[in-house]
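Researcher: Hi, I'm a grad student and pretty new to this. My advisor asked me to get structures for two proteins we've been looking at. I'm not sure of the right format, so I'll just paste the first sequence and hope you can take it from there.
Model: That works fine. Here's the first sequence with its structure tokens right after it:
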Amino acid sequence: MEVLGVKRPTIDISLDVVDHPLVAKAQKIPDLVESNDAEPILSLHDRRWLKVKAGEFRGGVTVLDANPSWAHVCGNSSFWLGLAGKRQSDTPSKDFYASLPAKTADYLPQDKDWKRWYAEQAFAAKSIMQKMVRKCAWLSLNMSKAFCFEIGDALVWVQIRMMDSGIVYIAIGAHGLADAKTYAILMTSFPGVASNDWLPEPDGVAEIEVQSGEMVFSAILDPSDQSLLMDEADENEWALELG
């Protein structure tokens, strides 16, 4: 990142979307590999590196699935932009190609890179789950019934209930989900609902009957969170799914 003159972003921003032309151009490498149009860096011999060019910047991308020890992380294929610099043919000491190392092992992902990758994935998963909770809540608010989504083998449902008093309650339930950390993520989907606001049903606040094999928690959804829910629905055009 330092070579590109870019600050390392916070964990909520994946490195593959960093605002830099070389990073953006590197995202095209998988398609070039698929079409056999990727160009190798011929001066490197210890592993295959592919050229990336963006203005004055040059880079090298390698495919990580060449190493079986990465399979649990990379899956079938993962590309790594490990080499970067500027093309300065008039200044060999600073030129990207002239400065390439004979051995590139140190330019492959290190422990800190894997930790960053895992953290990015965890943050992304958390964000997706919380967004699904809010989406299901909005759908429930409009359709007056529960809406569901899956987390692995578990089924999570969300329901909004408006009582005669005008108070709005939200309930989150799950079948086959026993992980306390996942429940904690689900129940932090709304900024105005604190973790200690949630109460277990059937003795909670939403008067929901709990089925065998499920856990259900409910809380009051205050007007500010209802307003944020409407804004997010408009932004993501969730209304299109109502038909």
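Researcher: Oh nice, that was easy. Here's the second one.
Model: And its structure:
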Amino acid sequence: MRSSVTAAGLGIAAGGLGLRALVALGRVLTLADLPPHADPTTAAAVYDTLTDALRTAAWAATAAGLALALTTWLTLRVRRTPPPDETPRQAAPVAATPDPP
């Protein structure tokens, strides 16, 4: 169960990194395909403004996924103490000692 949660956390982190890479690739492709009369600095500022929330969400997904994976991986490594025995223990019989004379 925990290994699947670890894998899910790593998948979320990988998805966040993939999203961030695609946003960066989209920026490069968008700025490379500008018409000659367009100002690349202005186009970059507009693209960055429009994709700011998307980049933030990508980093948040990456951080959350890594935190989830690390937490579950670490809890797998912690050695738990065995549960206490729930049956009451019987007291050992006490040997009767003779009364002094």
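Researcher: Is there anything I should tell my advisor about the second?
Model: You could mention this: The chain has three helices and no strands.
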